[in-house]
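Researcher: I've been going back and forth with a colleague about how Transcriptional regulator, TetR family might be arranged in three dimensions. Neither of us has a model we trust, so I'd like an independent prediction. The organism is Saccharothrix espanaensis, in case that matters for your notes. Sequence below.
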Amino acid sequence: MSERADAARNRAKILAAAADIVATRGIEGLGMAEVAAASGVGVGTLYRRFGDRSGLAHALIDDSEREFQQAFITGPAPLGPGAPAAARIRAFLHGLTDRTLAQLDLLLMAETAGPLARFGGAYDVYHRHLTVLVHQARPELDPAFTADALLGPLAANLVAHRRLAGPTIKAGLDALLDSLF
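Model: Here is an independent structure prediction for Transcriptional regulator, TetR family. You can compare it with whatever you and your colleague have in mind.
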């Protein structure tokens, strides 16, 4: 079912207002009432559309998430098809590290909204992707467990808690990957 034109306009206004608030005031300034006022829609519309702040955070992440998924599914190697599985795993984890750090505050809000908020959606896509690649590179490993183990260090709450930087995360992942592949 396609979105009505007025609903699409409201969504665009809401996301633009929310992105502006995050850019100028940080994630702490992202209140539903503030976004509603800045976008010119009612608070009820905002809650019906996004549910809560974490739903709004997910929506703000959506465009970059789609671009990242497109890159590893159909983009150029080594992130996309055409490179050996081990090289694709490394490129994927490096790309996911960059993406996580670029949107850490939004991911932290989105991934910690509930006990299982991190899982499903994008995580399931990442997990399936890594499971296939791990199976190709090292079929004797449990690919599903290995995929979870590789994704674990990129949980937004762990990255924020440890105040990890990109080079540190990538070096740690590279050492792990070197031992596995």
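Researcher: What would you highlight for our discussion?
Model: I'd start with this: Residues 53-74 form the longest helix (22 residues). After that, consider the following. Residues 11 and 49 are 8 Å apart (CA to CA).
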